[in-house]
Amino acid sequence: MTHHVVIIGAGYAGLSAAIKLAKKTNRQNVRITLINNHRQFIERVRLHQLAAGHRLREWPLTQVLEGTGIELMVANVGAIDSLGRTVSINAGSGAVRYDTLVYALGSGLPANTVPGTSANAHSVVNPVEAARLRDQIHNLRTGSAVAVVGGGLTGIETATELAETLPGLNVHLCSRARPGHWLAPAGQRHLRQALERLNITTYVGRVEEVAPTSVALEDGRTISAAMTVWTAGFRVPPLARKSGIRVNDHNRIVVDGHLRSVSHPEIYAVGDAAAPAVAGHESRMSCQTALPMGKYVAEAIVRQLAGHNPKPHTIRYIWQNVSLGRRDGVTQFTRTNDSPLPAVMTGRKSARFKEAVTRGAARYSTGTDARRGDSRRACTPEHELVSGLQVLEAHERDKQGPALRTAAILAAGGILHFVVPTFFDRIIPRRLPGNARAYTRASGAAALGIAGTLVLPRTRSLGGTLAALYFVAVMPAKVQLTLDWWRDDRSTILLKVAAIAQMPLQTPLIIEALKARRDAGELHRRPTRADRPPL
After folding, report:
1. Where does the FAD/NAD(P)-binding domain lie (predicted)?
2. Where would a tag sit more exposed on the chain, N or C end, judged by fewer CB atoms within 10 A?
3. Is the pTM of this model over 0.90?
4. What does the alpha-carbon distance between residue 35 and residue 288 come to, in Å, rounded to a whole number?
């Protein structure tokens, strides 16, 4: 008998769950239906870029799901009959029956109780709202004021993106607490400097009313603003509560250790809609937790159908990324319980790091390879693999050298990955503050990485290319992540060892993949800059 799995919501968690489940079941006695209210996969963490006028890559779900066997339904979910196990769509005009339901509808702005918000404020909660904001904000005159309400990640990123892209506007950031108060002192200091550099005025206080041309604070201050952007108070819609599913005070579904609803075990909840506990507290809404949730639920459903009990899901945080425009950012490294470590990464390095993480999240969710170029560049198949044909030709000219060099160099890098923090701990003067010690250790690791690159053979082979990328780009970031692993993250040592150990083993896999792409006529020589489409 065919088991019908219905997944509502195609965000980071829902889409990754659907694709993973399709790969695991391979259409064997499992039917998968994905219901979403939009025809595109939305990179929600980029919507502030869309509002500022940047062009984002489109991810049509029909293309993403092609060949997976997943049935796509573009519809609005109106209600869930948890007793009859049906999902009503399009205002009751249709219903879909399920055996297992994956609830992944995400979060949005609540029905705000602040007077004037609905009538006078814009948002970046979805592509339609972000595009409407973009169209109207570009019509403002130079010198006009824009008030961004909310000092969380979305508010900070929206304010800085608008200020950088449209320097003629006066951007105000209004927040109940000091923006970035959760960051380590070094992160707070860099954020404060970035806001000053972008001429963003910060107001701390609760917003009492939003008028067409102003924002009123509870202490009586009035901020003149030709346009207001509301980014505060993201909440989960009340659909689950209305459907009789047990939720908490924020409408997030209460789940057990396997991400199943405690009131309805046939319903799994993932992403922002789920409220798993982390160190005794409700988990933070984050793409960082949504993706592992989606993958885990797919594995759990497969194991359940096979008659096995899945292992409980564990949430571990690593960092918080805050972009401050396209060329600046703050990366706050955290303990597994999401409490901040003293270590932060700032500036252009952080901006590049977040861009890489964001692209990886999209690739991870959709199960496809991310195209080269940033989100504003038009992508063509010629840009899909960087120098793939050249790498393959170099490998075939020197069959053993690249693999052996790669294995040796990556193994050495893995050893340095653990040795460097301890080494610098011993030679750095103890009287230095903790943050200065962290920066010294990271700088020393980066210096060793660059020195290692300089002594490598010419990087015309696969081994040299991978080694150079590892030393210059990967190793410093890895050292940053392990600055305090002796004290805080001992439980993750085995995971880090496994990740390093698998790197040399990837060389033959990459070669085989390149050969297959070449045989299929899918490898192209890397185009020159003149051949690339304009931004």
Report:
1. 4-294
2. N
3. no
4. 23
